[in-house]
Design a protein that fits this description.
GO terms for molecular function: DNA-binding transcription factor activity, RNA polymerase II-specific. The protein is mainly α. It has helices at residues 18-24, 26-39, 47-70, 84-95, 112-115, 142-165, 187-218, 244-274, 277-297, 303-313.
């Protein structure tokens, strides 16, 4: 599943690096296990049912960690939830949803739908988007998609707030909050910190793309209207962890996202506001030419990044 996501690097593909994943990044570790337990069946008798139980428990723990991030709670431990890996974990959950989103919420015994289901004259008027109870069965397929989009929107908002707190959008080489001066630090720890810096510099581009894709899908105002000016390779030039093909891929994806955002922001509101179909027809032809130019300038990528690009742009 790793090649199908641009969020993570291949650093944790090596078992020798799992020490930092477990001891330093609990949110990312739990999220990876939660996603894996949904799509991989355990061997042996009862493997499917055990995988369901493990996935459900890990999703509950992920919710607990998300709540700690949102409420600003942190334990006195080296395993921090307010970490670069937590932002990556939140973005991963926007791509790979937990199984619980396919089902209605559990009732706690005091839910209002258990008390009153019939309309009453004292009730406030229902929103126009509210679906009558008699027709709710028609939305059984659509509702999980709406739940996943709403959850992704809130997760990206949380990731963006945490990114601002950790200084992700600051284009400098200053010391980070997750970096410490440790006397006699081993060389492998320096490799981890180098990798952490590279991951930190990748996040502004990822947050911009994820936020704008969701905003277009939900019809909301984008959380990041402009691409943050952060050079991903600055400060880590010459480091073997830098993936040049990933930077080419993200630059092309950002151009496509910016173009799609411009079309959404200017074309559709213009039709409703002015009703001038001829003017919008001309602008549509301009956008066609812009899309053709983008297609012509798209970089040549390896098989792995080409698969990733097709997965996210189709």
């Amino acid at each position: 599943m790793f090649p199908l996501s641009p969020v993570l690097t291949d650093f944790y593909n090596t078992p020798e690096n799992h020490y930092w994943l477990v001891t330093q990044e609990p949110m990312l570790c739990c999220t990876i296990l939660m996603i894996s337990s949904r799509y991989h069946v355990l061997p042996g008798l009862g493997g499917t049912s055990r995988a369901y139980s493990i996935h459900n428990r890990l999703w509950q723990h992920c919710q607990h960690l998300i709540l700690r991030i949102m409420l600003g709670q942190e334990k006195l431990s080296k395993a921090k939830t307010r970490h670069v890996g937590s932002i990556e974990a939140l973005l991963l959950m926007c791509e790979w949803y937990p199984r619980a989103l396919n089902f209605p919420l559990e009732n706690d015994g005091w839910d209002s739908d258990l008390i009153l289901t019939e309309p009453d004259l004292r009730d406030p008027p229902a929103p126009a988007s509210e679906i009558p109870m008699s027709d709710r069965w028609k939305e059984d397929v659509v509702e999980p998609t709406r739940r996943s989009d709403r959850m992704s929107w809130m997760l990206v908002s949380t990731a963006l707030a945490l990114a601002h707190e950790l200084g992700i959008f600051k284009n400098d080489n200053g010391k980070r909050k997750d970096e410490y001066d440790v006397p006699g630090m081993r060389s492998d720890a320096e490799v981890y910190l180098q990798q952490l810096e590279w991951r930190r510099r990748r996040l502004p581009s990822l947050l911009y793309v994820f936020a704008n894709m969701l905003a277009s899908r939900l019809g909301c105002t984008s959380l990041i209207p402009e691409i943050p000016i952060v050079n991903a390779a600055e400060g880590v030039t010459g480091c073997p962890c830098v993936d040049n093909e990933w930077m080419y891929f993200m630059a092309s994806w950002i151009d496509l996202t910016r173009l799609a955002k411009e079309i959404t922001d200017t074309h559709f509101p213009a039709i409703a506001r002015s009703g001038d179909q001829r003017r919008n027809l001309g602008s549509s032809e301009d956008w066609d030419s812009m899309l053709y130019r983008w297609q012509a300038s798209r970089p040549t990528l390896s098989e792995l990044h080409r698969l990733l690009f097709c997965y996210f742009t189709c």
